[in-house]
Amino acid sequence: MTARTNKLIESESKLYHLAHYDTLTDLPNRYSFQIDLKEMLESSQAEGKFAIIFIDLDRFKQVNDTLGHSGGDLLLKVLEKTNRF
Fold it and tell me: What pLDDT sits at residue 81?
């Protein structure tokens, strides 16, 4: 019974991670962002202000068109590793 319980807990943990994080970069995804933003908006009324930074890659479609999706994926992985906050 303990083994089955541990497997269930592990499965739930994996599902949570898949639902909340990008499979390529392992960064929080849009769904996770929406949840976090809602919590921040609710708590910011009591705690003060906060900011959101939006980063966009210009001409990323050209990277995918030129190097293929694997090249674009590699670029995202490199950027994610070099720009961790």
Answer: 78
